[in-house]
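Still learning folds. Look over my entry:

…
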Amino acid sequence: MLSPTLQNYLDRDTILSGVFEWIIMASPLISTLSYKPMVGNSLKYNVELTEPTPAWIARNETLTENTGTFEQRTADAYTIIHTGYTNKSAIKRQGTQSAEAVDIEKAVKAIAYDFEKKLIIGQTSVASTVSQLKGLLKIIAEFESEATVDLDGINNSQVIVGNAATGALTTTMMDELLDQIKPGKADLILLSRLARRKMNALKRAAGSGVEDTDSVLFGRKTSHYDGVAVWPSDWLKDNYVEGSSSVQTIADYDYDAAKVAGTNENTMILAMQIGEDMVTALEVSEMEHERETFIEDQHAVANRFSWEIGLACFKKFSLAVLTGVNPSD
């Protein structure tokens, strides 16, 4: 089911209604996210580390306090923007379809693709900038400390190390990843297409574990593992450098690097719970659409789309990553 925020988009501006239908088709992950309102440029929020525990007491026993623990982290608001230009002559001459609608669709799909990409690897690669939102991998690294820039399986409980350097994926590793999402169970497993094929091979070998069902989460037929939706993302790649002593570097990750056997052929598998008090997008304002009909030096119409957005995880145990796996093994 779409979040209330996205449902509102479909009931407002007729252009944005169509835009979000295209975005949802281009990136179903966007439609599953929760969108929490945010005010201002930055949000200092509490990441829940441990739950408070009640006490069982005997008569006249002194009470002890346990309020749980949390640490503060910061999430900023970022702007993603794209402008689609349509030649006015093309608008007048095209009789079979709307040239402007085609250019709008291309523009908003570009936003959807790049938003999903940065949702995963934002601020964790050599091509990252401080203008991009913090991605899921960066947020997991900061569970250890706000200054941490790697995925340390020794000091970060939400980094599940399949192999200290690299090795084959197993169902035991997947189970360990899902066990680290608590209380309750994960809503989503996010992985590369090659990792999904490996999971399907494990299913066929074991005769169980992964199943295909009609998922309400995505409104389409989706694989499940242990009842959790499995969604392949084209923006999770299999070219991460092999880890060292259970530590996976991400700050110097080269997204465009060629996959090289024995050097950089690892992947990441993410599991998460989605909700306003778990993994959620932060929205300062709704996506805006501006249309200009006079563009200096161009005989064109411009349609610009902008979105003020961020990302946060309010509960540590609602997000985890599996490292040290080579889906080709």
About this structure: The chain has a mean pLDDT of 85.
